[in-house]
Known about the structure:
This protein is of the alpha/beta class. It has seven helices and eight strands, in the order H-H-H-E-H-E-E-E-E-H-E-E-E-H-H. Strand 2 and strand 3 form a beta hairpin.
Amino acid sequence: xxxxxxxxxxxxxxxVARRVRWWSLETMASERNxxxxxxxxxxAATHEPEGGTKRGKKHGNRDGRDGTGSQEESGSERSTxxxxxxxxxxxxxxxxxxxxxxxxxxxxxxxxSRVCSSLSKSLEFYRDVLGFVEIKRPDSFDFDGAWLFNxxxxxxxxxxxxxxxxxxxxxxxxxxxISFTCDSLQEVESSLTRHGINYVKSSVVEHMVKVEQVFFxxxxxxxxxxxTCDCLPVTPLGNGRQCMRRCPSFTVGEGAMExxxxxxxxxxxxxxxxxx
Length: 276
């Protein structure tokens, strides 16, 4: 633009053209700096596609770089590629977590099933000796049995086929068994004696806490234990603390602290007697 006003001075149109040119140069420089910064953050973006230099020359850029439009297009392609890669990474992470070996999402024990040779004898034992209450069972079952419930757990008795009477095996505290806790083991022993049931006594001492145990059989030879095991504190090992967060809090059972205090007092009395 070469228009001049009166007095030979350039008019306003020429200064406007200079401003437009200056703004265009500043914009191009800013876009080049942005593209250069993206390449530094993403090393993979430093490799230009094949024919990139030729394309820059074709559009008349002396330094061989792409034009502004091609830079924006390349940046958009890189952004899309980053999004796709991140999505694939998240999907792989979900699949990897799904393959982790986690425990089953259980809540509590529901019932224990027992196959019995005599339904009437087993029902009498679990009802009259152990104190379970008979409850309704589904009518759709096509075999004899009985359901009982108490102490937060069910006992399902099954009468299948002609199961022979069990052999009278010796009571082995180390055999398979289910265990119940009680308030008074002396009352348990008296009740077993009245019912004419043989039993074996045992005990365990752990950190000055004594656990009393009584073992006996049901009519089919299944082992039953009644004990004072709830006086022992439950201490998780390894990653068991994660389970403790999902389960009710475990504390030292009733009577455990009293036993500890009594044992400490007894030891102090013994030590004092030795000193005397």
